[in-house]
Amino acid sequence: MAQVEATTERTIAADAETVFDALADYTGTRAKLLPEHFSEYEVREGGDGEGTLVHWKLQATSKRIRDCLLEVSEPTDGQLVEKDRNSSMVTTWTVTPAGEKQSRVVVSTVWNGAGGIGGFFEKTFAPKGLGRIYDAVLDKLAAEVGK
What we know:
It is built from three helices and seven strands. By secondary structure, it is of the alpha+beta class. The longest helix has 30 residues, at 116-145. The termini are far apart.
């Protein structure tokens, strides 16, 4: 199995604290940021950053749906890590200042991919598809915090 990684980043016109707080708000803001690829969103524990347990289904393609149960941690300032209890998938959100009233948001997801020819296609195409999904999330985030 090869590790598969998808990374997307964006500069957002809001300070880092505002952006981070929006991402960490699983009971409010986060649900508003999710595009149609996400369904069955439910906060099961916590709801604000560290200690949150959140569920959703991610439909990356018409045939591929991941049932995700994510434990949220904050290992360092400005960083949220979502570890899926149902797979090897880990998503890290990093928010850093990028000038006056600007932030840089980097979202990176890694998981253990399939082997063989299926793994080749997964490693080739999955990062692009997931990148498009996270671009949509970052578009909504920019609109939400730029109010």
